[in-house]
Amino acid sequence: MTDDDIKALHDFEDTAVPTDLASLSQRWLAGAIDYALFGAGLFAGAALGMGLARLSGSSAVTLMTLGTAMLGALIPSVISWVLITRDGQSLGKRWVGIRIVTRGGQPPGFLRGVVLRNWVLQLVDRACGFLFFIDHAAILLRERRAIHDYIAGTWVIDPN
After folding, report:
1. Nearest Cα to 116, choosing from 150, 159, 73?
2. Is the entire prediction scored with pTM above 0.85?
């Protein structure tokens, strides 16, 4: 197996690592916006579920509230997943003006941008409960990359 075969298997590009990295404050603000939108969707969905349960006189208030709360939280999540896949930006990153890129400067796509950067770490975090903090603490290192960036082979840049 040649070096070219190995590079092709691992999807490494010969381009340089991005140098226009987003600042810590930009990443923090974008994350805060994303979490606020998720929370707003969750709250709106829960309020809708409680209202519908009361109007219908249903005794399944908790079940209806949980269901609509999850739906409410899913809406901003799906919007962000589509934007990350297509443009490399969640809603928060779009508003702050930063974006996620691969080594070649391209948007990460669904596998890298959503599955590896979001879902994998969330599943592992559910099992141990503290990975979220370790993941985000890695941003303080020189390359300003969280663990999910290393896993997905992505960087968050400020293209401006």
Report:
1. 150
2. no
